[in-house]
Design a protein that fits this description.
- The structure is a single chain.
- The longest helix has 12 residues, at 10-21.
- The chain is globular, with a radius of gyration of 15 Å.
- A 6-stranded mixed sheet has the order 2-1-6-5-4-3.
- The chain contains 3 helices and 6 strands, in the order H-H-E-E-H-E-E-E-E.
- It is 22% helix and 47% strand.
- The chain is α+β, with helices and mostly antiparallel strands.
Length: 132
């Protein structure tokens, strides 16, 4: 795993926990008011907390959900902290459905806002099996 930086990298831990708890309010609060987000299952770019909330209300509407960090690589650009890596989602839509196990890749841009450190931009996409 790459090097992290104190403070802002705690946003990733908070994000992972909020997804596992299916706590949409806490999760959305980690994003900047004008954040941009491409969800793993999203059909369009979410711009701002309202659209991000709508995405996560649908994405986290599951019987149960788990997410685990597989790897992360950090780099700093001035006041921004960049994180890129992969995570694994496991969920069950309903008790009578099979478990879904999906790996995805991500990038986060974390940085200062008037509210403190927040996620400024987040991209998540399905893992490509047998890629280049």
């Amino acid at each position: 795993m790459g090097e992290s930086s104190e403070g802002t990298d705690g946003l990733i831990d908070g994000w992972l926990a909020a997804v596992g708890w299916r706590d949409v309010d806490h999760l959305v609060g980690l994003y900047a008011e004008d954040a941009q987000f491409w969800g793993t299952m999203g059909a369009s770019l979410c711009c701002g907390r309202a659209e991000i909330r709508d995405y996560f209300l649908r994405f986290l509407d599951r019987h149960w959900m788990q997410v685990s960090l597989l790897d992360v690589h950090w780099s700093r650009r001035s006041e921004l902290l960049l994180a890129a890596g992969s995570y694994r989602f496991r969920w069950q839509d309903r008790p009578d459905r099979d478990e879904v196990d999906a790996r995805a890749r991500f990038s986060f841009v974390l940085g200062p806002t008037p509210e403190g450190a927040r996620i400024l931009q987040h991209h998540s996409s399905a893992w490509v099996v047998g890629g280049l």
